[in-house]
Amino acid sequence: MQKLPPSVEFALKETSPNIGAGSAMGNKLSCTYDLVEQMQYLYVRVVKARDLPPKDVTGICDPYVEVKLGNYKGVTRHFEKKSNPEWNQVFAFSKDRIQASALEVFVKDKDVVLDDLIGWMMFDLNEVPKRVPPDSPLAPQWYRLEDRKGGKIKAGELMLAVWMGTQADEAFPDAWHSDAASVGPDGVNNIRSKVYLSPKLWYVRVNVIEAQDLVPNDKSRFPEVFVKGTVGNQALRTRISQIKTINPMWNDDLIFVAAEPFEEPLILSVEDRLGPNKDEVLGKCMIPLQLVQRRLDHKPVNTRWFNLEKHVVLDGELKKDTKFASKIHLRICLDGGYHVLDESTHYSSDLRPTAKQLWRPSIGILEVGVLSAGGLMPMKTKDGRGTTDAYCVAKYGQKWVRTRTIVDSFTPRWNEQYTWEVFDPCTVITVGVFDNGHLHGGGGGKDSRIGKMRIRLSTLETNRVYTHSYPLLALHPSGVKKMGELHLAVRFTCSSLVNMLHMYSHPLLPKMHYIQPLSVMQLDSLRHQAMQIVSMRLSRAEPPLRKEVVEYMLDVDLHKWSMRRSKANFFRIMGVLSVLIAVGKWFDQICNWKNPLTTILIHILFIILVLYPELILPTVFLYLFVIGLWNFRWRPRHPPHMDTRLSHADAAHPDELDEEFDTFPTSRPSDIVRMRYDRLRSIAGRVQTVVGDLATQGERFQSLLSWRDPRATTLFVTFCLIAAIVLYVTPFQVVGLLVGIYVLRHP
């Protein structure tokens, strides 16, 4: 099968950036920052001032500092009525945009009409020292302030430090950047680079065994009792007990997702079904998850009895009934042997179990340099023109990273490098690009998605630096669209080859997933709950990693129906089966003597294998070895990327894409929904026919021994008897030889 080359526009492009890892001599960047291009910055750290003289008639001083370099101006916050203020604020001016030969620092007094100058100083840029980590930070010094004429003022000193550095400087992440000078003080916090950690997730398994001595209000009927469990926003219930007494039994499992630190308790309520949408609470118990036993393997934990509290209305108030307590019998544990899936299984970046005691040693380090992006599309309109304020988010394992936001640029340059510890090579890193919608402190907007890409670590060679420009492809209702390109440098360093090869001998998920497997429905529901918990926790960080960003990175809507995705999956299955189909066609050509020489060779090989059956398996494995060796010449040299042809993104019908982007429940007009429903019915009808035909063939084979058709069963039983006698008398090798020669006979 010849694979058509992907579109040039959507193809991966190899690049040669000027990074330390790619040059023979390296550069002056620290070795920990060798996957990014060197970017020079002028840093100014304004620490504090002392003995500032008052400028108002009131005799008080409201000081702030203004740092000016050419057309760029950075301002600290101002203090009211303070002559010894402390700012400890860093300003970073990009060397590429410096248009002046001197740095000016002004100390001013905040006033209602016009701010008064307290003092100033000037630094010649040619005299500014350079600093390269891991050197210690430059010590700030006290400088005497001068007046407009250059003379020293009577009182007032400013402590600051000025140096030239790179993005490897530890002051870089929290600095005010000159390329974001248009961002107000409310939005500065939303543009900085940050590292986030996903919360540690646990499966909470509640085995509801039985309850005793329930007290229903209506004694004249048999109670229909079930147990409802809630953890935060999650609610599950058992089936109604088959024993309709005051001592019901269930033995049902309820499984929830909880995140450390545990904030919500487990609440169990025993309820009696009185009618449709009408339930009576017979008792409740609240169990803090901090007190629940943690389980590392499949051994059952001890059961416990819990009192059920019942609240009654007395004098118009809800009070706890302390006269008598019913009991509920439970087995509760935090299952640490599972990996809590918060991503799609085949795109997971972490497959370790929750319990740290079960983790295997790390196998290496993944380093990613987020260099730049190019050709980004305008995502919003500002002052009548299109603009984009782009930032990157990368997710691997529990660690999320967010680069700083580059304001108003279609070709942003980040040059930020991040590192992750790797525990499993069969994992995936996801990198997404977003447009920042919160630059001006507003809370109403959303961060728009630009595009994302994934890299599977198992496709990377160890200790090799991959520098590629990845197309940012996004699916829109109008079709697949290229939103720009993301330039990355990636290196996977293996620390232990033995540990890495050992990981390939283990199953994908922890062994608890196979000893006590969860159903597909449970996994889907628990994955959705885990995604919601992660997005909620990360949105509470400062600055927040917003809900829409986390959901896009985790593919929260992957489970929804899509005609395009269904077609793609069908053709993927056909691609897997195409090997068997190709072998069948090749064997048919052998049987029909299309190439007599090949058929004669197959005859000889067949006779040798029949006479020496111990050679069959060695021959098969040798053949697979030769095929693998033959394909080595055409091995892929680049990481795989999204294939628009395989995913049917480039050939999807507009109506199918509109259906894929429809909300759930639907928001489309009734005639369109009716048309799609009829289309789905026709597809389901074909599937139903195929499944029915398969079932019919299976039942026909089963009926050969059921005497439903007496003549067919008689013939089949007689044939089985004759075959048993013949195969008993005749050596198996002779039978195999005769059958094979008959099948391969000349037409």
Layout of helices and strands:
Layout lengths: L12 E2 L25 E11 L12 E7 L2 E4 L10 E9 L7 E8 L6 E9 L16 E6 L5 E15 L9 E2 L16 E4 L3 E12 L12 E7 L2 E4 L11 E11 L6 E10 L2 E10 L6 E2 L8 E11 L2 E19 L28 E11 L5 E3 L2 E3 L2 E7 L2 E4 L10 E10 L5 E8 L12 E9 L8 E12 L2 E16 L2 H7 L8 H4 L4 H19 L8 H8 L8 H29 L4 H16 L4 H16 L22 H7 L9 H33 L7 H20 L2 H12 L4
Parallel strand pairs: 5-10, 18-20
Antiparallel strand pairs: 1-29, 2-5, 2-9, 3-4, 3-6, 6-7, 8-9, 11-25, 12-15, 12-20, 13-14, 13-16, 16-17, 19-20, 21-26, 21-30, 22-23, 24-25, 24-27, 27-28, 29-30
Helix pairs in contact: 3-4, 6-11
Report on the architecture of this protein.
One of its GO terms (cellular component) is membrane. This is ANTHRANILATE PHOSPHORIBOSYLTRANSFERASE-LIKE PROTEIN. The chain crosses the membrane at residues 570-587, 599-632, 715-744. Pfam families: C2, PRT_C. It comes from Salix purpurea (Purple osier willow). Helices cover 23% and strands 33% of the residues. By secondary structure, it is of the alpha+beta class. A hairpin with a 2-residue loop joins β13 and β14 (234-237). The radius of gyration is 35 Å and the shape is globular. The two termini are 28 Å apart. The model is unreliable at 24-30 (pLDDT under 50).
